[in-house]
Amino acid sequence: MIIIPDDIVFHVLQFLDLKFLVLVASRVSHQFYEQSLKIPFGLNLKGKVLPEELILKIFPSEPNNIRDDDHRYYNITSLDLNHCMLRAEHFKQISASPRSRNLRNLDATLNTLLEEGAKAIGESQYFRNSLLETLKLGFCSIGNEGLKYLMHSNFRNLTSLDLTKNDLDNEALEMIATSPYMNKLKFLTLKRNLFDGNGVEKLVYGANLHNLTFLDLSMNEIYDTAFLKAIASSDNMKNLQILKLQHMHINTSTGLQYLADSSNLQNFTELDLAFNSLQILSLNSNSKIFMNLRTLILDFNQLGKDSMVTITNFCNLTKLSVDSNYFRDDAIEYLASSPNMKHLTWLKLANNSLGYESVKHIFNSKYLGNMEHLDLTNNSDLTDEISQLLQPSTILSLQHLKTLVLAELCLTGSDISEEAVSALSQSKTLHNIRMVNLKFTLVSRETIQQVESSCGILFVVDKR
């Protein structure tokens, strides 16, 4: 009789489909059954309305209520309950179940937890001292009192916390900053709450947040940019890589200069300033930030050519998004002629006022040859000359381009011609292109099907 060691059985079972594991493999022998209970798996119930009896079946509160035929729920390590219309009492049931003890990821976004639901999670014997690494509680209305229970719970392994729109004020941010159980936190999302600049100062000066790499403060009513000085000067922000500040009333560069000059933000690689009514981006040319930043998001501001002068000082940018600004041909010419843009692989220029000349500069730039994604959506000044723009003889650079977005270019004006679309598939320069977005243009489906059949390009179109 051949005896297979448990560790070998466990290793083999991990490669099986979950349904096959539950219905077939676990019934082969007692050994297979025991080892199958150890297999970690995720339960995705996102968007589903869950009957009361199903919650009780999956998460019984007493060990003796767990039936043998329910063993498929034993080792749940990831649970997605996003938008399941659950209430506080449901999370009391889940938190009281032994089956919560192995959870590493819990997404409870868009459920009505309130203070009681947060208390149930925070005081649960299975969550306290747990393996929980990711906790998403966006739009759960837990408030300061609910947060208090979480900050006193021993989430010693927590690395990611999402508290979007929970009516949290300055006191809440101080609780996060001073909780001894947040010292492994790397990702923190605090969008759409009630704190001000003083709250941010308390947060970033909290010694327990020294491992933070991602911070999202978007959509909070902070009108004084002094909070940016706190972020820049705090020794606890030395590991910060990504900072998101959308809808934050930052309409001048004064506060941004603090970030630009910071000696603490040596690991800073991404800055998101979308939706800020920023009229000009002007930073000292010797600012430290110009060497570090890899991603810059400036969508929906009011920037023009003067700001492009500053943008081209970011010598290591790989991703730049300037959707819905006031850039014209002269600004794009400046961008395309800058040697600092040689690392750029992703460029979004949608909803500006670009004409044929500005895009011609991009297509012929000797510094933009590494571009893989180019978005020219809804630049109406390109409409009449789009056929000329896409001729193989015009496109001399962009040999690495994989995605070209031309959506909405021809909502008004002449259609993109069949010849222009065909030119994409025939171009020797664009031989790597794999997708072209032509949504809301007037290109016929027949034309697209003909071109698709002759090349490897996927054309994305709207439903017609």
Automatic annotation (TrEMBL):
Residues 4-38 form the F-box domain. Pfam families: F-box, LRR_6. GO terms for biological process: SCF-dependent proteasomal ubiquitin-dependent protein catabolic process. Transmembrane segments: none annotated. One of its GO terms (cellular component) is SCF ubiquitin ligase complex. This is F-box domain-containing protein.
